[in-house]
Specification:
This protein is α+β, with helices and mostly antiparallel strands. It has two domains: 82 residues, Phosphorylase Kinase, domain 1 (2-Layer Sandwich); 242 residues, Aminoglycoside phosphotransferase (APH), C-terminal lobe (Aminoglycoside 3'-phosphotransferase, Chain: A, domain 2), CATH 3.90.1200.10. The strands form three sheets. A five-stranded antiparallel sheet has the order 1-2-3-5-4, with helices on both faces. The chain is globular and about 65 Å long. It is built from twelve helices and nine strands. GO terms for molecular function: transferase activity. Keywords: Transferase. This is Aminoglycoside phosphotransferase.
């Protein structure tokens, strides 16, 4: 969630009524610019609150309220919900200010300290007896494969317009279906989905894992616990200091693994989920550019392709790597050229 301020907004009648009902009828509102979603936030600076609205996603709105309360109940920090109107998808939530991990890192804050805190918060969530005791959708087989289809529908044809997409998609998804089989039955953890530096905050007035503020978890599902660890340590938007990913992975393993066998299983799932995630994101970034006109996401595409290449190797997914090499030759090296080719036509002047 970005923190820069745009022009003062005007609310529609349901928003005005909602604020009045919660004693904020005279509040000054400052709009925060959006991200890849249709969700909108308005800051109430005098009240220390944010007005959140998402009229396009009632299920996501309800999920946000439910998950926020669940996380707080587990001893973690999600924005406290002061009031909600499910009919109009409006909520007043706690405003933590601007101290996102991304901003703290840009200001020189210790990378190891911030990432260590985030890993500890994840471990706390995954070790909590009731951590997954919440009614959220399950990360099922078809969802995993549908996410990978975006690679076939957007990235692959953008890189190779003459590609015979149907047989490529069939083979690509069949290989992934086989590779992901060990993941399909795993629903042991609440997966927050977007667990990275733009959605984490350092809360100076709190201690322990509550010092790590959690944002944007409305898409949470029940799935494998390593997914959010990959989101954090193999971030599409930034490179970590040399050795930090490995040390943070071992920090997590030390907290969760009961022995060597489980430690090795965590590593295997970590690399497998990383490969799946990077393939999906490569397609999503191209789609955001071509369909939605959000070309800046392509700035991160070369990194995502490097991460995908490395994860395929680490996970031992040679059959998938071989298919990419045969059907999309030099796909990694051409990623940067693809970004340069697509972006200019979509960047605003």
């Amino acid at each position: 969630m970005s923190v820069a301020v745009t022009a003062l907004p005007r609310l529609d009648p349901p928003g005005v009524t909602f604020l009045a009902r919660h004693g904020q009828s005279g509040a000054t509102l400052r709009a925060l610019p959006g991200d890849a979603s249709a969700r909108r936030y308005y800051r109430l600076p005098e009240a220390g609150l944010l007005l959140m609205e998402d009229r396009t996603d009632p299920e996501g709105f309800s999920s946000y309220i439910r998950v926020a309360r669940h996380l707080n109940g587990l001893g973690l920090s999600a924005p406290r919900v002061e009031g909600a109107d499910p009919t109009h998808c409006l909520a007043l939530i706690e405003d933590w200010g601007d101290a996102t991990y991304a901003r703290r890192l840009a200001g020189g804050r210790s990378e190891a300290a911030l990432y260590g805190l985030a890993v500890d918060a994840l471990a706390h969530l995954h070790m909590a007896p009731d951590g997954a005791a919440i009614s959220q959708p399950r990360y099922e087989r078809q969802i995993w494969l549908d996410e990978l289809r975006v690679f076939c529908d957007w990235f692959a044809p953008a890189l190779a317009p003459s590609l015979d997409r149907e047989p490529f998609t069939t083979r690509f998804l069949a290989l992934w279906d086989e590779a992901l089989a060990p993941i399909y039955g795993r629903h042991e953890a609440l997966v927050l989905r977007d667990f990275h530096v733009d959605n984490l905050m350092e809360l100076d007035d709190r201690d322990g894992v509550r010092r790590c503020g959690l944002l944007d978890f409305q898409d949470a599902v029940l799935g494998p616990r390593e997914y959010d660890l990959v989101s954090l340590l193999q971030d599409a938007r930034r490179d970590l200091a040399p050795g930090l990913e490995a040390s943070m992975l071992e920090r997590y393993v030390a907290a969760l693994a009961a022995g060597q066998q489980e430690a090795e299983a965590i590593h295997r799932r970590y690399h497998l989920l990383g490969a799946q995630r990077h393939a999906r994101i490569a397609g999503v970034f191209v789609r955001l550019c071509q369909r939605d006109g959000k070309a800046h996401y392509l700035n991160w595409l070369p990194r995502v392709l490097r991460q995908l290449d490395a994860a395929l190797t680490a996970a031992g997914l040679t059959s998938i790597a071989d298919l990419l090499a045969a059907e999309l030759p030099d796909w990694r090296a051409r990623g940067e050229a693809l970004a340069r080719r697509l972006a200019p036509a979509h960047r605003p002047e």
